[in-house]
Amino acid sequence: MRIDHYLHRSAERHAGKTALVAGETRLNYAELKTMSEAFAAALIVRGATPGDRVVLLMDNGWRMAVAIFGCWMAGAVVCPVNPSTKEARLSQILDSSTPFAVVAEARLEKMVSDTAGSSELLRIVSGVSNPSGDGIDFDALLEQAHVALPQNLPETDLAVIIYTSGSTGEPKGVMLAHDNLDAAVRSITSYLGNTSEDILLGVLPLSFGYGLNQLLSSVFVGGTLVIEKSFAYPHLIFERIREERITGFALVPTMLSIMMQTRDLSQNLFESLRYVTAAAAPLPTVHGDWLRTFLPHVGLFRMYGQTECTRISFLPPEDLDRKRDSVGIAIPGTSTEVVDEMGDSVAPGTTGELVVSGPHVMRGYWRNEVATARALRTDAATGRMRLHTGDLFTCDAEGYLTFVARKDDIIKSRGEKVAPQAVEAVLQTMPGVSDALVIGVAHEVFGQAIKAIVIAPGAAITEKDVMRHCARHLEVHMVPTIVEFRDFLPTTDTGKVSRRLAAQDTENNR
Question: Which pTM was predicted?
């Protein structure tokens, strides 16, 4: 099914029901559909054709949701970009995607103009009634008279191109078709048990695959999505959960770390919560234990995924004690296998690369055949296309997956390979430590030295304390020889802790 059909169906079934809450704005399904159709019409009368790309450089909010569904109704491809993106990266994305239009917040209008130069790019400005230059007011477009919208567009059409940085920092455009997204949404909502009674919290960027999925899942089941711009003010978010009676809260581990450090946090704020999902980065076991103790009535779903296929695995809440370090089993409709360097399946408990197949796997990387060929390969035995994730895993005899490390993250120290997550797991058990990140640093003798970046607010912990703690629990070659204390870990604009940024910081300060 095409994703825009979700909105048509929910508008028929739940016309007067609240679809979106964003600040003081509340839109029901009929209103969301009407606005999206108007935006689609505005694109079409200005020359948009199916397959054209539209870059959305927008804050979380109702306008972005309207733009997303409006693009799809026009047959366009959505290229969501985080509004915190810098000019150099935006330039790369515009050069790659060659969009028909850019929709941007008013404060970003100049950056878009400077970056786009003299190109014949339709510029739509959100959040201001009188844009400067050639910009068109977003809200004015919603007054566009109805025109015939494309009909019977195939579900195999591209829906989104989401740019990711990967280990190199160069943006790669992940191509996901409507049928890819549809397969993921149906699978995820099935194991989360989502219904039209759910009220989901969308605090993650809609430009982020995990954040976008909250919108798609909510519209698919006819639920309500409460959209927040960010997690910058946690107390306000927690109060919002109470006010709106949120039932589903999608977060990343850094957000849970902030929750753990919040003083006088009342359980009463979260009475309505049915479940919490944790994805985008490995969830430390100690973080999960804290949440389950603090909110015992809430189901915690630990999940693993990639932009290239949305979601890969989930750990059911009832398995959290039995499989403490696992990211679970393959989501419905997905096949997973852990393979060696020759592509052959490895024995249970043996580390190898995770490969994935299923209807949710991307079409490839936009205009990047080399990267596509590396990631997508045909299995000679079955003829199926498989995604090589670049992540190292083990799989036990029951099919439960455990994340080991990104291939690119493996530290080679003293002739041994060290998975940084194994060191981080030990650091996170140290009293006073709220979070930690481990990276490899060039070393003349060791090849790479192990550096630990430690967050320990208010704790009287020294470098030697950290090293001694690690020495009690780890082999000698895994013990950090460099310890740095910080107030926070470096993160990407989607809230994911970034080893690449940490390594850049270290190199710049040498």
Answer: 0.88
Hey, where are the domains in the chain?
Answer: 1-176, 230-404, 409-506
- pLDDT surpassing 60 at residue 126: yes
Pick the CATH number of 1-176 from 3.40.1620.10, 3.40.50.980, 3.40.50.2020, 3.40.50.620: 3.40.50.980
**How many other β-carbons are positioned within 10 Å of the β-carbon of residue 263?**
4
DSSP string, 344-368: PBPPTT--EEEEEESTTS--EETT-
> What is the DSSP secondary structure assignment for residue 85, as one 8-state letter?
-
**3.40.50.12780, 3.40.50.1820, 3.50.30.60, 3.10.20.30: CATH of 230-404:** 3.40.50.12780
Query: Residue 509 phi/psi, 5° resolution?
Result: -100, 5
* Token pair recorded at residue 34: 């009407």
Confidence of residue 130 (pLDDT cuts 50, 70, 90): confident
CATH number of 409-506: 3.30.300.30
pLDDT tens across 211-224, in order?
999 999 999 999 99
How far is it, in rounded angstroms, from Cα 303 to Cα 139?
37
Residue 293 main-chain phi, psi, to 5 deg: -75, -40
Q: What is the CB neighbour count within 10 angstroms for residue 51?
A: 12
Write down the number of H helices and E strands in the chain: 15, 27
Please name the residues in contact with 439: beta carbons below 8 A apart, sequence gap of 6 or more: 411, 420, 451, 453, 499, 502, 503, 506
CA-closest candidate to residue 89, choices 254, 181, 207: 207
How do beta strands 122-126 and 136-137 pair?
Answer: parallel
pLDDT at 509 exceeding the cut of 80: no
Mean pLDDT computed over 312-316: 98
Cα(492)–Cα(435) distance, rounded to whole angstroms? 16
